[in-house]
Protein backbone atom coordinates (compact mmCIF):
# COMPACT_ATOMS: atom_id res chain seq x y z
CA UNK A 1 0.00 0.00 0.00
CA UNK A 2 1.48 3.32 -0.99
CA UNK A 3 0.57 5.93 1.58
CA UNK A 4 2.31 8.90 0.13
CA UNK A 5 4.91 9.14 -2.57
CA UNK A 6 7.66 11.72 -2.98
CA UNK A 7 8.19 13.73 -6.14
CA UNK A 8 6.65 11.56 -8.83
CA UNK A 9 9.76 11.24 -10.96
CA UNK A 10 11.86 9.97 -8.06
CA UNK A 11 10.28 6.62 -7.42
CA UNK A 12 9.33 4.63 -10.49
CA UNK A 13 5.81 3.27 -10.62
CA UNK A 14 6.49 -0.50 -10.47
CA UNK A 15 8.36 -0.15 -7.20
CA UNK A 16 5.96 2.35 -5.73
CA UNK A 17 3.67 -0.38 -4.52
CA UNK A 18 6.03 -3.16 -3.48
CA UNK A 19 3.44 -4.59 -1.12
CA UNK A 20 4.60 -8.07 -1.94
CA UNK A 21 7.51 -10.09 -0.67
CA UNK A 22 9.32 -12.84 -2.56
CA UNK A 23 8.82 -16.27 -1.01
CA UNK A 24 10.86 -18.87 -2.91
CA UNK A 25 10.12 -17.36 -6.30
CA UNK A 26 6.52 -16.37 -5.56
CA UNK A 27 5.42 -12.76 -5.10
CA UNK A 28 2.79 -12.40 -2.41
CA UNK A 29 1.70 -10.37 0.58
CA UNK A 30 3.73 -11.31 3.62
CA UNK A 31 1.91 -12.67 6.65
CA UNK A 32 3.81 -10.47 9.10
CA UNK A 33 3.69 -7.08 10.73
CA UNK A 34 3.64 -3.92 8.58
CA UNK A 35 7.03 -2.59 7.50
CA UNK A 36 6.93 1.17 6.93
CA UNK A 37 9.53 2.95 4.85
CA UNK A 38 9.91 6.69 5.08
CA UNK A 39 11.66 9.20 2.82
CA UNK A 40 14.01 10.78 5.34
CA UNK A 41 14.35 13.96 3.27
CA UNK A 42 10.68 14.77 3.76
CA UNK A 43 9.45 12.51 6.53
CA UNK A 44 6.74 11.21 4.23
CA UNK A 45 5.81 7.54 4.21
CA UNK A 46 6.83 5.87 0.96
CA UNK A 47 5.32 2.48 1.51
CA UNK A 48 3.82 0.23 4.14
CA UNK A 49 4.22 -3.39 3.22
CA UNK A 50 3.31 -6.57 5.03
CA UNK A 51 6.59 -8.16 6.09
CA UNK A 52 7.38 -11.85 6.04
CA UNK A 53 6.46 -13.83 9.15
CA UNK A 54 7.86 -17.09 10.50
CA UNK A 55 5.48 -19.12 8.30
CA UNK A 56 6.74 -17.33 5.18
CA UNK A 57 10.32 -17.96 6.32
CA UNK A 58 9.61 -21.65 6.90
CA UNK A 59 8.10 -22.07 3.46
CA UNK A 60 10.91 -20.06 1.83
CA UNK A 61 13.59 -22.12 3.59
CA UNK A 62 12.05 -25.50 2.78
CA UNK A 63 11.52 -24.60 -0.86
CA UNK A 64 15.00 -23.07 -1.04
CA UNK A 65 16.47 -26.39 0.10
CA UNK A 66 14.54 -28.16 -2.68
CA UNK A 67 15.67 -25.60 -5.25
CA UNK A 68 19.30 -25.87 -4.13
CA UNK A 69 19.18 -29.64 -4.62
CA UNK A 70 17.40 -29.41 -8.00
CA UNK A 71 19.61 -31.04 -10.65
CA UNK A 72 19.00 -28.07 -12.97
CA UNK A 73 20.91 -25.94 -10.44
CA UNK A 74 23.11 -28.48 -8.68
CA UNK A 75 24.40 -29.82 -11.99
CA UNK A 76 24.76 -26.45 -13.71
CA UNK A 77 28.34 -26.02 -14.94
CA UNK A 78 30.29 -23.07 -13.61
CA UNK A 79 30.25 -21.17 -16.90
CA UNK A 80 26.45 -21.32 -17.01
CA UNK A 81 26.18 -20.09 -13.43
CA UNK A 82 28.61 -17.31 -14.39
CA UNK A 83 26.32 -16.43 -17.30
CA UNK A 84 23.42 -16.03 -14.84
CA UNK A 85 25.54 -13.65 -12.74
CA UNK A 86 26.44 -11.60 -15.83
CA UNK A 87 22.78 -11.41 -16.79
CA UNK A 88 21.93 -10.11 -13.31
CA UNK A 89 24.72 -7.52 -13.69
CA UNK A 90 23.31 -6.48 -17.10
CA UNK A 91 19.83 -6.02 -15.63
CA UNK A 92 21.15 -3.99 -12.69
CA UNK A 93 23.12 -1.74 -15.03
CA UNK A 94 20.14 -1.26 -17.34
CA UNK A 95 18.05 -0.26 -14.33
CA UNK A 96 20.78 1.59 -12.41
CA UNK A 97 19.13 4.99 -12.60
CA UNK A 98 15.79 3.74 -11.26
CA UNK A 99 17.47 1.70 -8.56
CA UNK A 100 19.47 4.76 -7.57
CA UNK A 101 16.32 6.92 -7.36
CA UNK A 102 14.60 4.25 -5.31
CA UNK A 103 17.52 3.90 -2.92
CA UNK A 104 17.80 7.68 -2.52
CA UNK A 105 14.12 7.85 -1.61
CA UNK A 106 14.46 4.93 0.78
CA UNK A 107 17.74 5.81 2.51
CA UNK A 108 18.11 9.55 1.89
CA UNK A 109 21.55 9.09 0.33
CA UNK A 110 22.88 11.33 -2.45
CA UNK A 111 22.01 10.27 -5.99
CA UNK A 112 25.68 10.21 -7.01
CA UNK A 113 26.36 7.72 -4.23
CA UNK A 114 23.34 5.49 -4.88
CA UNK A 115 24.16 5.41 -8.59
CA UNK A 116 27.72 4.39 -7.77
CA UNK A 117 26.39 1.71 -5.40
CA UNK A 118 24.13 0.28 -8.11
CA UNK A 119 27.06 0.06 -10.53
CA UNK A 120 29.24 -1.41 -7.81
CA UNK A 121 26.60 -4.10 -7.19
CA UNK A 122 26.68 -4.96 -10.90
CA UNK A 123 30.49 -5.05 -10.68
CA UNK A 124 30.26 -7.47 -7.76
CA UNK A 125 28.21 -9.89 -9.87
CA UNK A 126 30.70 -9.58 -12.74
CA UNK A 127 33.79 -10.02 -10.57
CA UNK A 128 32.21 -13.03 -8.88
CA UNK A 129 31.32 -14.54 -12.26
CA UNK A 130 34.97 -14.23 -13.33
CA UNK A 131 36.22 -15.67 -10.04
CA UNK A 132 33.80 -18.57 -10.44
CA UNK A 133 34.91 -19.35 -13.97
CA UNK A 134 38.58 -19.31 -13.06
CA UNK A 135 38.36 -21.05 -9.66
CA UNK A 136 40.30 -24.29 -9.35
CA UNK A 137 40.09 -27.18 -6.94
CA UNK A 138 43.31 -28.82 -5.83
CA UNK A 139 44.48 -32.30 -6.56
CA UNK A 140 46.51 -32.90 -3.40
CA UNK A 141 49.77 -34.85 -3.51
CA UNK A 142 49.20 -38.57 -2.93
CA UNK A 143 50.97 -40.11 0.03
CA UNK A 144 49.91 -43.66 -0.80
CA UNK A 145 48.26 -45.69 -3.52
CA UNK A 146 45.34 -43.41 -4.06
CA UNK A 147 44.47 -40.17 -5.72
CA UNK A 148 43.29 -37.39 -3.41
CA UNK A 149 41.46 -34.21 -4.17
CA UNK A 150 39.76 -31.38 -2.42
CA UNK A 151 36.22 -30.51 -3.51
CA UNK A 152 34.15 -27.45 -2.69
CA UNK A 153 30.41 -28.00 -2.58
CA UNK A 154 27.47 -25.67 -1.90
CA UNK A 155 26.25 -25.37 1.68
CA UNK A 156 22.59 -25.42 0.54
CA UNK A 157 20.58 -22.50 1.92
CA UNK A 158 22.23 -19.23 2.96
CA UNK A 159 20.58 -16.62 5.16
CA UNK A 160 21.83 -13.17 4.09
CA UNK A 161 20.92 -10.45 6.60
CA UNK A 162 21.76 -6.88 5.60
CA UNK A 163 21.61 -3.39 7.14
CA UNK A 164 20.09 -0.15 5.90
CA UNK A 165 23.18 1.91 5.11
CA UNK A 166 24.17 0.65 1.64
CA UNK A 167 21.46 -1.85 0.78
CA UNK A 168 22.20 -2.79 -2.81
CA UNK A 169 25.94 -3.10 -2.26
CA UNK A 170 25.66 -5.30 0.83
CA UNK A 171 22.88 -7.38 -0.75
CA UNK A 172 25.01 -8.02 -3.85
CA UNK A 173 28.07 -8.74 -1.76
CA UNK A 174 26.29 -11.74 -0.27
CA UNK A 175 23.97 -12.78 -3.08
CA UNK A 176 26.60 -12.99 -5.82
CA UNK A 177 29.10 -15.32 -4.09
CA UNK A 178 26.31 -17.39 -2.49
CA UNK A 179 24.71 -18.05 -5.90
CA UNK A 180 28.12 -18.54 -7.54
CA UNK A 181 28.86 -21.21 -4.95
CA UNK A 182 25.67 -23.04 -5.94
CA UNK A 183 23.36 -22.16 -3.03
CA UNK A 184 19.85 -20.82 -2.57
CA UNK A 185 19.50 -17.55 -0.64
CA UNK A 186 17.04 -16.05 1.83
CA UNK A 187 17.73 -12.31 1.78
CA UNK A 188 16.49 -10.25 4.72
CA UNK A 189 16.88 -6.50 4.23
CA UNK A 190 16.68 -4.00 7.08
CA UNK A 191 13.25 -2.81 8.25
CA UNK A 192 13.89 0.81 7.26
CA UNK A 193 15.05 0.09 3.70
CA UNK A 194 13.38 -2.94 2.09
CA UNK A 195 12.69 -1.42 -1.34
CA UNK A 196 16.02 -1.94 -3.08
CA UNK A 197 16.30 -5.59 -1.98
CA UNK A 198 12.85 -6.17 -3.44
CA UNK A 199 13.92 -4.46 -6.69
CA UNK A 200 17.02 -6.66 -6.78
CA UNK A 201 14.74 -9.63 -6.07
CA UNK A 202 12.72 -8.79 -9.20
CA UNK A 203 15.92 -8.69 -11.26
CA UNK A 204 17.27 -12.00 -9.98
CA UNK A 205 13.84 -13.60 -10.30
CA UNK A 206 13.69 -12.48 -13.93
CA UNK A 207 17.19 -13.79 -14.68
CA UNK A 208 16.38 -17.16 -13.09
CA UNK A 209 13.12 -17.40 -15.04
CA UNK A 210 14.80 -16.54 -18.35
CA UNK A 211 17.44 -19.20 -17.74
CA UNK A 212 14.77 -21.80 -16.82
CA UNK A 213 16.36 -22.26 -13.41
CA UNK A 214 14.40 -22.92 -10.19
CA UNK A 215 13.01 -19.58 -9.02
CA UNK A 216 12.86 -20.89 -5.45
CA UNK A 217 16.59 -20.12 -5.28
CA UNK A 218 15.84 -16.61 -4.04
CA UNK A 219 13.53 -15.24 -1.38
CA UNK A 220 13.44 -11.61 -0.25
CA UNK A 221 11.93 -11.44 3.21
CA UNK A 222 11.61 -7.99 4.78
CA UNK A 223 10.47 -7.83 8.37
CA UNK A 224 11.66 -7.12 11.89
CA UNK A 225 15.05 -8.57 12.78
CA UNK A 226 13.78 -10.19 15.96
CA UNK A 227 10.99 -11.98 14.04
CA UNK A 228 11.90 -12.53 10.40
CA UNK A 229 15.67 -12.46 10.90
CA UNK A 230 15.48 -14.71 13.93
CA UNK A 231 13.30 -17.24 12.08
CA UNK A 232 15.88 -17.38 9.28
CA UNK A 233 18.80 -17.86 11.65
CA UNK A 234 17.09 -20.67 13.58
CA UNK A 235 15.58 -22.52 10.64
CA UNK A 236 17.06 -26.02 10.39
CA UNK A 237 17.36 -25.80 6.58
CA UNK A 238 19.59 -22.72 6.75
CA UNK A 239 23.26 -23.73 6.73
CA UNK A 240 25.07 -20.42 7.00
CA UNK A 241 24.37 -16.82 7.96
CA UNK A 242 26.14 -13.98 6.20
CA UNK A 243 25.47 -10.85 8.24
CA UNK A 244 26.30 -7.17 8.03
CA UNK A 245 25.07 -4.94 10.84
CA UNK A 246 25.66 -3.93 14.42
CA UNK A 247 28.06 -5.70 16.77
CA UNK A 248 25.38 -6.49 19.35
CA UNK A 249 23.18 -8.23 16.78
CA UNK A 250 26.21 -9.99 15.28
CA UNK A 251 27.16 -11.42 18.64
CA UNK A 252 23.58 -12.69 19.19
CA UNK A 253 23.62 -14.33 15.75
CA UNK A 254 26.96 -15.98 16.51
CA UNK A 255 25.40 -17.49 19.67
CA UNK A 256 22.42 -18.76 17.67
CA UNK A 257 24.77 -20.14 15.01
CA UNK A 258 26.77 -21.94 17.69
CA UNK A 259 23.64 -23.88 18.74
CA UNK A 260 23.34 -25.22 15.19
CA UNK A 261 27.12 -25.49 14.66
CA UNK A 262 26.53 -23.35 11.60
CA UNK A 263 29.15 -21.08 10.04
CA UNK A 264 28.51 -17.37 10.25
CA UNK A 265 30.31 -14.42 8.70
CA UNK A 266 29.96 -11.10 10.49
CA UNK A 267 30.72 -7.66 9.12
CA UNK A 268 30.11 -5.39 12.12
CA UNK A 269 30.73 -1.94 13.50
CA UNK A 270 33.76 0.29 13.79
CA UNK A 271 35.23 3.37 15.40
CA UNK A 272 37.96 3.75 12.85
CA UNK A 273 40.95 6.05 13.39
CA UNK A 274 42.12 8.43 10.72
CA UNK A 275 45.62 9.77 11.31
CA UNK A 276 47.32 12.92 10.07
CA UNK A 277 51.09 12.89 10.58
CA UNK A 278 53.29 15.98 10.70
CA UNK A 279 54.36 15.70 7.06
CA UNK A 280 50.97 14.91 5.50
CA UNK A 281 49.91 16.81 2.39
CA UNK A 282 47.36 19.28 3.77
CA UNK A 283 44.87 19.22 0.89
CA UNK A 284 44.98 15.44 0.47
CA UNK A 285 44.54 14.86 4.20
CA UNK A 286 41.69 17.37 4.51
CA UNK A 287 39.81 15.85 1.60
CA UNK A 288 40.37 12.32 2.90
CA UNK A 289 39.34 13.05 6.48
CA UNK A 290 36.21 14.96 5.39
CA UNK A 291 35.17 12.27 2.92
CA UNK A 292 35.99 9.55 5.45
CA UNK A 293 33.54 10.84 8.04
CA UNK A 294 30.97 13.01 6.27
CA UNK A 295 30.26 11.05 3.07
CA UNK A 296 27.12 8.94 3.53
CA UNK A 297 26.51 11.33 6.46
CA UNK A 298 28.84 9.13 8.51
CA UNK A 299 26.50 6.15 8.19
CA UNK A 300 29.20 3.78 7.15
CA UNK A 301 30.81 0.97 9.10
CA UNK A 302 34.23 2.26 7.98
CA UNK A 303 33.53 5.93 8.77
CA UNK A 304 36.72 7.55 10.02
CA UNK A 305 35.12 8.77 13.22
CA UNK A 306 38.20 9.39 15.41
CA UNK A 307 40.78 11.76 13.92
CA UNK A 308 44.28 11.76 15.42
CA UNK A 309 46.39 14.78 14.49
CA UNK A 310 50.09 15.25 15.34
CA UNK A 311 50.21 17.84 18.12
CA UNK A 312 52.57 20.10 16.14
CA UNK A 313 49.92 20.50 13.42
CA UNK A 314 46.84 20.25 15.57
CA UNK A 315 45.59 23.85 15.64
CA UNK A 316 46.28 24.63 11.99
CA UNK A 317 44.85 21.38 10.68
CA UNK A 318 41.76 21.39 12.88
CA UNK A 319 41.09 25.04 12.00
CA UNK A 320 41.18 24.26 8.28
CA UNK A 321 39.08 21.15 8.78
CA UNK A 322 36.34 22.97 10.66
CA UNK A 323 36.19 25.69 8.01
CA UNK A 324 35.75 23.03 5.33
CA UNK A 325 33.19 21.07 7.36
CA UNK A 326 31.08 24.22 7.79
CA UNK A 327 31.11 24.75 4.03
CA UNK A 328 29.78 21.29 3.15
CA UNK A 329 26.43 21.51 1.39
CA UNK A 330 23.66 19.83 3.37
CA UNK A 331 20.48 18.98 1.48
CA UNK A 332 18.26 16.27 0.04
CA UNK A 333 19.96 13.37 -1.71
CA UNK A 334 18.00 14.18 -4.87
CA UNK A 335 19.79 17.56 -5.24
CA UNK A 336 22.99 17.05 -7.28
CA UNK A 337 24.72 19.79 -5.25
CA UNK A 338 24.23 17.97 -1.95
CA UNK A 339 27.29 16.59 -0.16
CA UNK A 340 25.72 15.67 3.18
CA UNK A 341 22.26 14.13 2.85
CA UNK A 342 19.75 13.39 5.63
CA UNK A 343 20.23 10.44 7.92
CA UNK A 344 18.29 7.28 7.15
CA UNK A 345 15.48 7.88 9.64
CA UNK A 346 14.33 10.48 12.14
CA UNK A 347 14.83 8.01 14.97
CA UNK A 348 18.42 7.50 13.91
CA UNK A 349 18.97 11.26 13.68
CA UNK A 350 17.72 11.52 17.27
CA UNK A 351 20.16 8.84 18.37
CA UNK A 352 23.06 10.74 16.74
CA UNK A 353 21.91 13.97 18.43
CA UNK A 354 21.74 12.16 21.78
CA UNK A 355 25.37 11.05 21.34
CA UNK A 356 26.46 14.63 20.72
CA UNK A 357 24.59 15.70 23.86
CA UNK A 358 26.34 12.92 25.75
CA UNK A 359 29.71 14.12 24.41
CA UNK A 360 28.87 17.62 25.68
CA UNK A 361 28.25 16.22 29.16
CA UNK A 362 31.59 14.39 28.89
CA UNK A 363 33.30 17.74 28.28
CA UNK A 364 33.48 17.98 24.47
CA UNK A 365 34.00 21.30 22.68
CA UNK A 366 31.65 21.57 19.73
CA UNK A 367 33.82 23.11 16.99
CA UNK A 368 31.02 23.04 14.41
CA UNK A 369 27.60 21.48 13.93
CA UNK A 370 26.12 19.83 16.98
CA UNK A 371 22.55 20.47 15.84
CA UNK A 372 20.07 19.94 13.03
CA UNK A 373 20.29 22.63 10.32
CA UNK A 374 17.71 25.39 10.49
CA UNK A 375 15.38 26.59 7.77
CA UNK A 376 12.31 25.59 5.84
CA UNK A 377 14.28 23.25 3.57
CA UNK A 378 15.31 21.07 6.50
CA UNK A 379 12.19 21.27 8.62
CA UNK A 380 10.73 17.82 7.93
CA UNK A 381 13.86 15.86 7.08
CA UNK A 382 16.16 13.76 9.27
CA UNK A 383 19.06 16.20 8.89
CA UNK A 384 22.06 16.71 11.13
CA UNK A 385 24.92 19.13 10.54
CA UNK A 386 28.49 17.90 9.99
CA UNK A 387 29.85 18.01 13.52
CA UNK A 388 33.43 18.25 14.78
CA UNK A 389 34.20 17.79 18.48
CA UNK A 390 37.39 17.87 20.49
CA UNK A 391 38.45 18.15 24.12
CA UNK A 392 37.56 14.53 24.93
CA UNK A 393 39.89 11.77 26.09
CA UNK A 394 39.85 8.64 23.93
CA UNK A 395 38.24 6.81 26.86
CA UNK A 396 35.04 8.94 26.64
CA UNK A 397 31.94 7.04 25.55
CA UNK A 398 31.59 9.26 22.48
CA UNK A 399 35.08 8.09 21.43
CA UNK A 400 34.41 4.44 22.15
CA UNK A 401 30.88 3.82 20.88
CA UNK A 402 29.81 3.80 17.27
CA UNK A 403 27.66 6.88 16.59
CA UNK A 404 27.05 6.09 12.89
CA UNK A 405 26.45 9.70 11.96
CA UNK A 406 28.28 12.84 10.77
CA UNK A 407 30.22 13.27 14.00
CA UNK A 408 34.02 13.51 14.03
CA UNK A 409 36.02 13.56 17.24
CA UNK A 410 39.53 15.01 17.02
CA UNK A 411 42.33 13.94 19.36
CA UNK A 412 45.98 15.05 19.46
CA UNK A 413 48.91 12.62 19.76
CA UNK A 414 52.52 13.10 20.83
CA UNK A 415 54.50 10.31 19.20
CA UNK A 416 54.00 7.00 17.45
CA UNK A 417 53.65 4.93 20.60
CA UNK A 418 51.04 7.32 22.00
CA UNK A 419 49.23 7.27 18.66
CA UNK A 420 49.17 3.49 18.38
CA UNK A 421 48.06 3.08 22.00
CA UNK A 422 45.13 5.49 21.53
CA UNK A 423 44.15 4.27 18.05
CA UNK A 424 44.07 0.64 19.21
CA UNK A 425 42.30 1.42 22.47
CA UNK A 426 38.87 0.42 21.15
CA UNK A 427 36.93 -2.82 20.94
CA UNK A 428 36.71 -2.32 17.18
CA UNK A 429 39.22 -3.05 14.42
CA UNK A 430 37.60 -2.36 11.08
CA UNK A 431 39.53 0.32 9.21
CA UNK A 432 42.20 2.99 9.49
CA UNK A 433 43.32 5.88 7.30
CA UNK A 434 46.68 7.54 7.50
CA UNK A 435 48.15 10.50 5.71
CA UNK A 436 51.91 10.95 5.41
CA UNK A 437 54.60 11.32 2.75
CA UNK A 438 56.98 9.11 4.75
CA UNK A 439 56.73 5.57 3.35
CA UNK A 440 58.66 3.98 6.21
CA UNK A 441 56.33 5.48 8.84
CA UNK A 442 53.27 4.55 6.80
CA UNK A 443 54.43 0.94 6.61
CA UNK A 444 55.32 0.80 10.30
CA UNK A 445 52.02 2.28 11.46
CA UNK A 446 49.92 0.26 9.02
CA UNK A 447 51.39 -2.87 10.57
CA UNK A 448 50.78 -1.72 14.16
CA UNK A 449 47.14 -0.61 13.92
CA UNK A 450 44.43 -3.21 14.57
CA UNK A 451 42.31 -2.88 11.43
CA UNK A 452 41.04 -5.20 8.71
CA UNK A 453 41.68 -2.47 6.12
CA UNK A 454 44.28 0.31 6.18
CA UNK A 455 44.11 3.13 3.66
CA UNK A 456 47.28 5.19 3.12
CA UNK A 457 46.79 8.66 1.60
CA UNK A 458 43.26 7.70 0.57
CA UNK A 459 40.06 6.52 2.24
CA UNK A 460 36.88 4.50 1.58
CA UNK A 461 38.18 2.98 -1.63
CA UNK A 462 36.98 -0.56 -2.34
CA UNK A 463 37.91 -3.22 -4.79
CA UNK A 464 36.07 -6.45 -5.47
CA UNK A 465 39.36 -8.30 -5.55
CA UNK A 466 40.51 -7.13 -2.11
CA UNK A 467 39.18 -9.03 0.93
CA UNK A 468 37.15 -6.97 3.38
CA UNK A 469 36.31 -7.59 7.03
CA UNK A 470 37.12 -6.66 10.59
CA UNK A 471 39.33 -7.57 13.52
CA UNK A 472 38.23 -7.70 17.17
CA UNK A 473 34.55 -6.73 17.65
CA UNK A 474 34.33 -5.56 14.04
CA UNK A 475 33.67 -9.01 12.71
CA UNK A 476 34.53 -12.52 11.71
CA UNK A 477 35.53 -13.69 8.25
CA UNK A 478 36.22 -11.85 5.02
CA UNK A 479 34.06 -10.99 2.03
CA UNK A 480 35.21 -10.27 -1.55
CA UNK A 481 38.34 -11.44 -3.29
CA UNK A 482 38.81 -14.73 -5.11
CA UNK A 483 38.21 -16.63 -1.89
CA UNK A 484 34.87 -14.86 -1.33
CA UNK A 485 32.99 -17.74 -3.00
CA UNK A 486 34.70 -20.28 -0.72
CA UNK A 487 32.92 -18.79 2.28
CA UNK A 488 29.67 -20.19 0.87
CA UNK A 489 30.95 -23.71 0.31
CA UNK A 490 31.76 -26.84 2.29
CA UNK A 491 35.02 -28.58 1.67
CA UNK A 492 35.17 -32.29 1.01
CA UNK A 493 38.32 -34.40 0.71
CA UNK A 494 38.16 -37.33 -1.62
CA UNK A 495 40.47 -40.39 -1.59
CA UNK A 496 40.27 -42.67 -4.60
CA UNK A 497 42.11 -45.93 -4.15
CA UNK A 498 44.01 -47.15 -7.16
CA UNK A 499 43.61 -50.70 -8.25
CA UNK A 500 46.46 -52.08 -6.27
CA UNK A 501 45.93 -50.02 -3.13
CA UNK A 502 46.88 -52.37 -0.29
CA UNK A 503 44.75 -52.28 2.85
CA UNK A 504 45.83 -54.20 5.95
CA UNK A 505 42.88 -56.62 5.90
CA UNK A 506 42.68 -57.17 2.16
CA UNK A 507 42.83 -60.82 1.17
CA UNK A 508 46.00 -61.33 -0.80
CA UNK A 509 45.41 -61.83 -4.48
P1 LIG B 1 22.18 -1.53 12.79
O1 LIG B 1 22.84 -1.51 14.14
O2 LIG B 1 23.07 -1.21 11.63
O3 LIG B 1 20.82 -0.94 12.73
P2 LIG B 1 21.24 -4.19 13.19
O4 LIG B 1 22.29 -5.12 13.64
O5 LIG B 1 20.21 -3.76 14.17
O6 LIG B 1 22.00 -3.02 12.49
O7 LIG B 1 20.48 -4.75 11.93
C1 LIG B 1 21.09 -5.28 10.80
C2 LIG B 1 20.19 -6.35 10.21
O8 LIG B 1 20.02 -7.38 11.19
C3 LIG B 1 18.78 -5.85 9.90
O9 LIG B 1 18.32 -6.50 8.72
C4 LIG B 1 17.98 -6.30 11.11
O10 LIG B 1 16.61 -6.46 10.84
C5 LIG B 1 18.65 -7.64 11.40
N1 LIG B 1 18.45 -8.12 12.78
C6 LIG B 1 18.34 -7.38 13.92
N2 LIG B 1 18.16 -8.18 14.98
C7 LIG B 1 18.16 -9.46 14.53
C8 LIG B 1 18.01 -10.75 15.14
N3 LIG B 1 17.83 -10.90 16.45
N4 LIG B 1 18.08 -11.85 14.36
C9 LIG B 1 18.29 -11.73 13.04
N5 LIG B 1 18.41 -10.54 12.39
C10 LIG B 1 18.36 -9.42 13.13
Account of the protein in words:
- The protein is an alpha/beta fold and 509 residues long.
- The chain has 2 domains: 22-268 and 474-493, 3-Layer(aba) Sandwich (Aldehyde Dehydrogenase, Chain A, domain 1); 273-456, Aldehyde Dehydrogenase, Chain A, domain 2.
- Helices cover 39% and strands 20% of the residues.
- It has 16 helices and 22 strands.
- The chain has helices at 13-16, 54-69, 71-74, 78-94, 96-107, 111-134, 167-180, 195-210, 225-234, 247-260, 282-294, 314-327, 346-361, 397-400, 416-424, 439-448; strands at 21-23, 26-28, 34-39, 44-50, 139-140, 146-154, 157-161, 184-188, 218-220, 240-244, 264-267, 273-276, 306-310, 365-368, 387-390, 407-413, 428-429, 431-435, 453-456, 471-472, 475-476, 489-497.
- Strands 14-15-16-13-12-18-19 form a 7-stranded mixed beta sheet, with helices on both faces. A 6-stranded mixed beta sheet has the order 9-8-7-10-11-21, sandwiched between helices. A 3-stranded antiparallel beta sheet has the order 5-6-22, with no helix packed on it.
- Strand 10 (240-244), helix 10 (247-260) and strand 11 form a beta-alpha-beta unit.
- It is globular.
- The termini are far apart.
- Adenosine-5'-diphosphate (ADP) binds at residues 161-163, 188, 190-191, 225-226, 229-230, 233, 245-246, 249, 252-253.
Amino acid sequence: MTVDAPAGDLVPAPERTPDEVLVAGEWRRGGGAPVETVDPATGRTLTVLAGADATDVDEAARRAATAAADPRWRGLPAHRRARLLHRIADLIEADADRISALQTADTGKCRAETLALAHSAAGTFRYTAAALETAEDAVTPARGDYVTMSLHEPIGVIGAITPWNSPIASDAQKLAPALAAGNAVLLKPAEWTPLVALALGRIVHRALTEAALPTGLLSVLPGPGAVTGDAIVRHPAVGKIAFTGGTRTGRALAHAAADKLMPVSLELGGKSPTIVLEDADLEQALAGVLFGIFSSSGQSCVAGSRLFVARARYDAFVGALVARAKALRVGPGSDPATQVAPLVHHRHRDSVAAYVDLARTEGAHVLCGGAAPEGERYRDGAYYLPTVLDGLPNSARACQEEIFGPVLIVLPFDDEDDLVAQANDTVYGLACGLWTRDAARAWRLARRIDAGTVWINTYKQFSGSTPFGGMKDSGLGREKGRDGIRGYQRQKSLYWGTDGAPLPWAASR
